[in-house]
Design a protein that fits this description.
The structure holds two protein chains of two kinds.
Chain A lengths: L27 H15 L2 H4 L13 E9 L5 E2 L2 E2 H14 L4 E12 L4 H18 L3 E9 L7 E11 L15 E4 L5 H7 L19 H10 L5 E3 L5 H13 L2 E5 L7 H10 L13 E4 L1 H12 L8 E7 L6 E4 L5 E3 L13
Parallel strand pairs in A: 4-5, 9-12
Antiparallel strand pairs in A: 1-6, 2-3, 4-6, 7-10, 7-11, 8-10, 9-11, 12-13
Helix pairs in contact in A: 1-4, 3-4, 6-9
Chain B lengths: L9 H14 L6 E7 H9 L10 E8 L7 H11 L5 E4 L14 H6 L3 E4 L3 H10 L5 E7 L4 H13 L5 E7 L2 H10 L1 H4 L8 E4 L2 H6 L5 H7 L3 E3 L4 H16 L5 E3 L11 H10 E3 L2 E4 L3 E4 L3 E3 L8 H4 L15 H5 L31 H9 L1 H4 L1
Parallel strand pairs in B: 1-2, 1-7, 3-4, 3-5, 5-6, 7-8, 8-9
Antiparallel strand pairs in B: 10-13, 11-12
Classes of the chains: A alpha+beta, B alpha/beta.
């Protein structure tokens, strides 16, 4: 008898193997990577059809769509990795409209030579995040670039969702008198990632707060149907997010420094790095703006959810033709909380 | 945060503010200059101006290391960074300082120059060790606080026998700058600028001590209060200055006694003296040429002097003619008096150096305080 197995392919070596150019060439190696890694991890009825697109029935109502590219360095950090971050980030962008996220796509740009073991770890983390959030990754794409032309792996995810009837959450709806709330401690993600940057290594117990917030949003919408604005303060931190909203809504804002929830460790890290926690990234927090009479109810709904237990009212929307975000300092003075200039660079002394 | 929050206590601040308001004589004004950018930053960030009566005015001084670095030296550094294979290391907020033609180290980096931000001079030495085939230059700037670490880096490089490490030295001296301001015609002859007293540097004074300021207090009859960089330190120093002025005193007082002594850090001073010597003259942005106001590397450490190794030419690049950085650094004008402020010159596109670092008078006012003009 012949020992030839006509359909045998040697399984991918997820211990020693590395991404090479053939994994993006459209040939057998790519098909194998898709089968053994992506389909195996993300497994769902849409992917199993093995088409170039996912087909699903169109839901009723207004749909939302959002896309986000992830280029974080380092790829693995305390509390998460680029994989779960890419799932949470897009789910959150969809959810900030009040929508229920339904489906995700994922597109990978891999660098030649990237260890398959790391890729597997990332993909499995994405799968866990998507499964945990109940939002399947239904279609995707993989490209490989030559060594030196990428930074290991870049992931772009796109999400779609549907907004419940009567919910109208949008950046231009902040009105003077509205209250500004945040769902928890600020700056955790940025400090966790910075603690691993090559020239900055310091030890911290801070973990990234990366999390999918659509459950929290659903609980908030259930408590207060007419939330005016929701946004997740990712890059640029709360300061940048509030400046965006102030401009969109043509209003000013007044924050109260002593009401901002910031962990001691994050404050300390920012202190010695010369950074301001208001500008440091979050990946599992949101800012909400609602009418003053709804604020207490919204706050209680947030605090009742595990991802909102440190929620706080941090300020209010005011009239201001200059659209400044200002802050009453804990010290008793007042200052502008401005747009971030370039990247946040540490001061020299 | 222990040892930090105590110095940011809002209730204590109100107490001190009440004392200042009560003791400040309404019949006169108090023009007080905080020399250091660290104080400028604290005053703006914590909104200290809101806690002072109208007749107590803070004038922002030139003690921002990035702000006083002349464009020519930045241009020198950019040219160094553009040398093939050379790695230029510098502190963070130097990256955005504008040189000629709107060029900066950040823009040079985007065009392919190998510019690396470091948190410490020791990181630059480490980069030199790890890249033995490449020349590594540390772009050293700053007042007396950052000078000892540069001296350590040079000594370290020597001990390690590094052949590829050198320092582009731009260290400057605080007392020369204060003296220059006090001797400026605006103060001495024209009387355009009233300066009643100084808040003395915090970190600089930990190194040089309080003794060097005694000359200013005596010669120019201006009180000096050395203060820490926390907002309560600044408030307390203002109160102490008001008291000195009310009492007709011109003394050096030390509010920052938890860190500053009269003699300073003698070990650091000796280290600096071992590696550096005075330059005959050095250009300061906005202040012009000031004799004996900066340091250069001594002949015995010439091997580590980037100016010699790369034959760095003297360059003097005039500032934009409409830019008032010079007058602002001397305290003659306020940021909002400059035509470019907030229009052509913003933190995103700085024309003058005062708009670059958050310690610069213009950037601090733009980022934290410009709601006051809007009101």
């Amino acid at each position: 008898m012949s020992t030839i197995k006509p359909n045998y392919t040697r399984p991918l070596d997820f211990k020693q193997g590395r991404v090479d150019m053939t994994h993006g060439s459209g040939g057998r190696a790519m098909a194998q990577l898709i089968d053994e890694l992506f389909v195996a991890a993300f497994d769902n009825e849409f992917l199993r059809q093995m088409n170039d697109q996912a087909r699903f029935p169109a839901p009723q109502g207004r749909m939302v769509m959002s896309t986000d590219s992830h280029v974080v360095s380092p790829l693995f950090f305390p509390g998460g990795d680029i994989g779960c971050l890419s799932v949470h980030g897009t789910i959150n962008d969809v959810a900030m409209s009040g929508a229920k996220p339904l489906y995700l796509s994922a597109s990978f740009i891999l660098e030649e030579g990237f260890p398959l073991a790391d890729l597997k770890r990332i993909v499995e983390s994405m799968a866990r995040a998507a499964h945990g959030a109940g939002v399947p990754i239904v279609t995707g794409d993989t490209k490989v670039v030559e060594q030196g032309k990428g930074d290991g792996v870049f992931i772009t995810t796109t999400g779609i969702g549907v907004v419940p009837d009567g919910v109208n959450i949008s950046g231009e709806r902040a009105r003077p008198g509205d209250k500004i709330l945040v769902s928890g401690t600020l700056g955790d993600h940025g400090v966790a990632v910075m603690s691993l940057r090559e020239n900055l290594t310091f030890h911290t117990s801070i973990q990234s707060d990366t999390a999918a917030l659509h459950g929290l949003v659903a609980a908030m919408v259930a408590a207060v149907h007419d939330i005016h604005v929701l946004r997740d303060p990712t890059r640029g931190g709360l300061a940048t997010t509030l400046n965006e909203i102030a401009r969109q809504s043509a209003v000013g804002m007044m924050l109260h420094e002593d009401q901002l929830p910031i962990r001691e460790q994050v404050r300390a890290a920012c202190e010695f790095l010369g950074l301001d926690p208001l500008y440091v990234a979050n990946e599992g927090k949101l800012a909400a703006i609602c009418a003053p009479e709804d604020a207490e109810r919204l706050l209680q709904a947030m605090r009742a959810h595990p991802l909102g237990c440190d929620a706080a009212v941090v300020g209010e929307v005011i009239e201001d033709p200059h659209h400044f975000v200002q802050m009453e300092t804990a010290f008793g003075g007042r200052r502008v909380v401005d747009w971030l200039t370039g990247e946040q660079l540490p001061r020299i002394c | 945060m222990k040892y930090v929050d105590e110095f940011r206590d809002g209730a204590l601040a109100k107490n001190i503010a009440a004392n200042i308001a009560r003791e400040a004589d309404p019949r006169r004004s108090y023009y007080l200059m905080e020399f250091c950018g660290g104080h400028t930053h604290a005053i703006s960030r914590y909104g200290i101006a809101d806690l002072l009566p109208a007749n107590v005015r803070m004038i922002h001084g030139p003690g921002c290391p990035v702000c006083v670095l002349p464009a020519g030296r930045v241009e020198n550094a950019i040219r160094l960074a553009q040398e093939p294979g050379l790695i230029l290391c510098c502190y963070g907020d130097l990256l955005r300082v504008p040189a000629a033609n709107g060029m900066s180290l950040l823009k040079a980096k985007a065009r392919g120059a190998d510019v690396r931000m470091v948190y410490s001079s020791a990181d630059a030495v480490k980069i030199a060790q790890e890249n033995s085939q490449q020349q590594v230059v540390f772009f050293a700037i700053g007042f007396e606080t950052t000078t000892p670490p540069t001296a350590v880096a040079i000594r370290q490089a020597q001990a390690l026998g590094l052949k590829n490490f050198s320092v582009f030295c731009n260290h400057v001296l605080t007392p020369s700058a204060i003296s220059h301001i006090l001797q400026s015609p605006e103060i001495r002859q024209l009387g355009v600028l009233t300066l009643d007293g100084f808040i003395g540097p915090a970190h600089v004074s930990t190194v040089i001590g309080s003794r060097p300021y005694e000359y200013f207090a005596e010669e120019f009859q201006k009180p000096v209060v050395i203060a820490g960089f926390e907002p309560l330190d600044v408030m307390q120093a203002i109160l102490m200055l008001v008291r000195q002025l009310n009492g007709g005193r011109a003394e050096v007082e030390n509010e920052f006694s938890r860190a500053v002594t009269r003699d300073g850090n003698v070990k650091a001073q000796l280290l600096v003296a071992e590696v550096f010597e005075l330059r005959r003259v050095f250009e300061w942005r906005g202040l012009g040429l000031i004799p004996y106001s900066a340091l250069r590397i001594k002949a015995q450490y010439a091997d580590y002097d980037a100016e010699l190794r790369f034959k760095v030419p003297p360059l003097s690049i005039p500032d934009n003619r409409a830019c008032e950085c010079g007058a602002i650094l001397r305290g003659v004008k306020r940021p909002q008096d400059c035509k470019l402020f907030g229009t052509a010159c913003t933190p995103d596109n700085p024309v003058g150096s005062c708009m670059v670092s958050s310690e610069g008078a213009c950037a601090a006012h733009y980022s934290y305080g410009r709601f006051r003009e809007a009101a």
